[in-house]
Amino acid sequence: MAPRHFLTLLDLSTEELEYLIARSITMKQRLKDNGPEYAPLKRRTMAMIFEKSSTRTRVSFETGMAQLGGHALFLSSRDTQLGRGEPIGDTARVLSEMVDLVMIRTFSHAGLDTFAQTSSIPVINALSDDYHPCQLLADIQTWTECHGPVAGKTAVWVGDGNNMCNSWINAARRFDFNLRIACPEGYDPDPALLEAAGDCVTIVRDPMAAAAGADLVTTDVWASMGQESEQASREAAFHGFQVTEAMLDAASSEVIFLHCLPAHRGEEISETLLDDPRAVVWQEAGNRLHAQKALIEFLLLGRIDD
Ligand code: CP
Ligand code: NVA
């Protein structure tokens, strides 16, 4: 049987994604109550390929795998044959012979697709240039923890139409909430994704207008990994798109602010925004651990309803 992969949120049904959010909340509570005693993945191994830097993703996957009783293998492209040109498909075949699961942080989403097509074990997208679906699991969990089911609510994305924005679009489709995207012209998200999303996603150029009455506001860096040379031109293009306390004041009285982190204070957010009680970014970052554990468990063991 072909393995299940998690390359974008659309690889799972709404029901499966809702299961993962609920399972992650359960696993978080049980870890708090009982410690890491649930360890069903004894002697199972996950390879983690990193072609870009990471703090949260590496730590959450590695810790999650250890807590579940398994082992995670950190593979930097700088130190493996991938970095010396071994074809990605060959690497996928080799890892399929040895480990149970692969997680990849890479540049090209097409390369990730190639890897997954060649792999006979599940592959997780831990961020590509186009998507960051693992982060959305933690983000939807955090939103749910704060204010219950997200269906019918309104989220606002401010800033670059990047990999995180594309994943928010997919999340709006799957979890049935409204998404307003405030991005400067020339930095729109993938038009095909926008078209597929239909009425639940709208572009609103003015960030203050987009934030009005919203239940959630989120943003990300203006220059993603791989775009460092565009930093200056992006700073100019995103002038006026900084998320501020005033923007949250225009939103619902229950609004929360999320940021996948790392954040740049004074650029995409005000110097003090992360100190505002409406910012729940540390809870969001911590939820990466629980979301990753639920995802690993689902891909290796299937649905567990206990
Ligand atoms: N949010 C996120 O993916 O963080 P890292 O780049 O530190 O993994
Ligand atoms: N958009 C950012 C997200 C980092 C977690 C990047 O790709 O660098």
TrEMBL record:
GO terms for molecular function: amino acid binding; ornithine carbamoyltransferase activity. The keyword Cytoplasm applies. It is an enzyme of class 2 (transferase). Carbamoyl phosphate binds at residues 54-57, 81, 105, 132-135, 260-261, 288. The gene is argF. Belongs to the aspartate/ornithine carbamoyltransferase superfamily. OTCase family. Pathway: Amino-acid biosynthesis; L-arginine biosynthesis; L-arginine from L-ornithine and carbamoyl phosphate: step 1/3. Keywords: Cytoplasm, Transferase. This is Ornithine carbamoyltransferase. Pfam families: OTCace (PF00185), OTCace_N (PF02729). Its main location: cytoplasm. PANTHER family: ORNITHINE CARBAMOYLTRANSFERASE, MITOCHONDRIAL (PTHR45753), ORNITHINE TRANSCARBAMYLASE, MITOCHONDRIAL (PTHR45753:SF3). The lineage of its organism: Bacteria, Pseudomonadati, Pseudomonadota, Gammaproteobacteria, Oceanospirillales. InterPro entries: Asp/Orn_carbamoyltranf_P-bd, Asp/Orn_carbamoylTrfase, Asp/Orn_carbamoylTrfase_sf, Asp_carbamoyltransf_Asp/Orn-bd, Orn/put_carbamltrans, OTCase_ArgI.
